[in-house]
Amino acid sequence: xxxxxxxxxxxxxxxxxxxxxxxxxSNGSLRHEVQTLPLWFPIxxxxxxxxxAKWAALPCLIFWLVIMIFIWLFLLGWARxxxxxxxxxxxxxTLTIGGACLIxxxxxxxxxxxxxxxxxxxxxxxxxxxxxxxxxxxLIPYIATR
Length: 146
What we know:
Layout: H1 4-25, H2 29-35, H3 40-47, H4 52-75, H5 88-110, H6 117-138, H7 141-144
Helix pairs in contact: 1-2, 1-3, 1-4, 1-5, 2-6, 3-4, 4-5, 4-6
């Protein structure tokens, strides 16, 4: 039995929980819940051992890794693509999320699926768009402050 689907699911779940922790310690639990909506699909399908989980997870993992890199660059004073004040808990969660993204990406890259290339591309494009949309929606003032 292939363990890759569950590995991708577990590490996507780690990202989701870490983002919920960030929401709990900051002002904006709803914002982080909205941001994580696209992650639910690779979590559920990964635990169901479905190959499509890889292609849904890839853009989400890449998206969150890039966001974490932007935060680390800001914290190190090297760039200002992301700004703000980050508590020690939030900083710890950026490390957790970044590590989970790297492990999930490594598992995804090694995982060979039988999904047709056009389907894989379509699912990845869809979930990349959904992740960007979820982030954009989470910045709407009503959502961002709840």
